[in-house]
Amino acid sequence: MGISALTPPPDPRTVTAVHLEFPDNRLLVELCGEFDRNLTHLESQLGVQILRRGNQLDIIGQDDARKQVADILEALYQRLEDGRGIESGDIAALIRLGGQTPSDETPDEQLEMFRTGRLEIRTRKKIISPRTKAQQDYTRALLLNELNFGIGPAGTGKTYIAVAVAVQMFSDGLVDKILLSRPAVEAGERLGFLPGDMKEKIDPYMQPLYDALNDFLPGKQLQKLMEERRIEIAPLAFMRGRTLSNAFVVLDEAQNATEMQMKMFLTRLGEGSRMAITGDRSQVDLPRGVSSGLRAAERILEGVEGISFSYFTSADVVRHPLVARIIQAYERDEEKSV
Known about the structure:
By secondary structure, this protein is an alpha/beta fold. The protein has helices at residues 25-32, 37-46, 63-81, 90-97, 107-116, 133-144, 158-171, 198-216, 219-227, 259-266, 293-301, 321-337; strands at 16-21, 49-53, 56-61, 121-122, 127-128, 147-151, 177-182, 231-235, 247-251, 274-279, 307-311.
């Protein structure tokens, strides 16, 4: 297997090689990925060449890159040995953990956290391991605080992690129900009249929440729980007048809640409940002149006991690596226009 055409061959005068050996050929196949795509990704991102011979991998490249690739491969292999799979995004996350993500912990400590899965969210269908320091802190905040705000750009796992924690707490019997909500606000375009009954009208707005739940619960069980109303998905407007006790409540796309809606929603919190509020301040779809309730809540609730705020940046994006670069480009453009 050769180095990616996008990356120039390393200069043999400035490179060294490291030799790795993996005893389980079945796990090695999973480590390398279909058609060695995982190795190809590491080559193109970090400017190394990886040669595969049997159960051995030779990494050729400059010292820093060679060591980083070796650490990543060993971390991924140990996860496979522990019975954990490799999902899309894991390699990109580990590349960031190699020193590109600001953190109070050293890159080695972060890699160890990834290897061991020290902080996990266990659901019926999968185990979630937060991939960045910000995601680790966010998960802890969701578990420790009755009300937590997750604020940052798209693709940082704010809603996904919140729903996963909700499912884990529900499965462990710590709450009796899950309620997921978001404002039914169109993203910059008028969709006009939608046919069907009320559920059919609002389902397109709620689809991201359905997608997250389907990742964590078997289909038949999810359907049964929704029929029993132990799991509910509803627009923000339907929350008025309710008291939500012994529930895990998630408000998604909170930047599109008005100040009055946000106050109304926050005061629904009942005994034994948890709330997670997620939003992206850069994607407000409210009409011109209408203030975002998320911005107001940040200002008003700062320092209130029992409420925590978790913040994400483009470095925490766990979607396609290009998403992080797009967000960074928009942030630079906004800074120029200030």
